[in-house]
């Protein structure tokens, strides 16, 4: 398998990973019970209380759900960035007619 083929596989893998991570980011929820645990852990570390957010559904805490979605969106963006990087290298190899 040549370098161009490896770059194509890396691009496809990172693209699929980004898609999966973005899908997960759109569905992740933090329950009010889990949010209470996280608030207590944060209080033990910092000595400060985090404000209690209203639940935007019966099963999810708004503040921690948005934080979790942000985390998974960042991970997806990193995977998409790697996909773009590998694709750029692939195109550069194609422009200079590097053999497989």
- Please write the string of helix (H) and strand (E) elements: HHH
Assign a percent range to the helix content. Answer: over 70%
**In DSSP terms, counting alpha (H) and pi (I) runs of 4 or more, how many helices?**
3
**Low-pLDDT regions:** none
Please tell me the overall pLDDT: 87
N-to-C span = 7 Å
Number of strands: 0
Structural class call reads mainly alpha
Task: Determine the strand fraction and express it as a percent band.
Answer: under 5%
Instruction: Specify the biggest β-sheet.
Output: none
Radius of gyration from the alpha-carbon trace, in angstroms? 20 Å
Q: What would the principal axes of the Cα set say about the shape? A: elongated
Task: Describe the structure concisely.
The chain is mostly helical. 74% of the residues lie in helices and 0% in strands. The chain has three helices and no strands.
Architecture overview:
The structure is a single chain. It contains three helices and no strands. Helices cover 74% and strands 0% of the residues. With 100 residues, the chain is an all-alpha fold. Helix 1 runs antiparallel to helix 3.
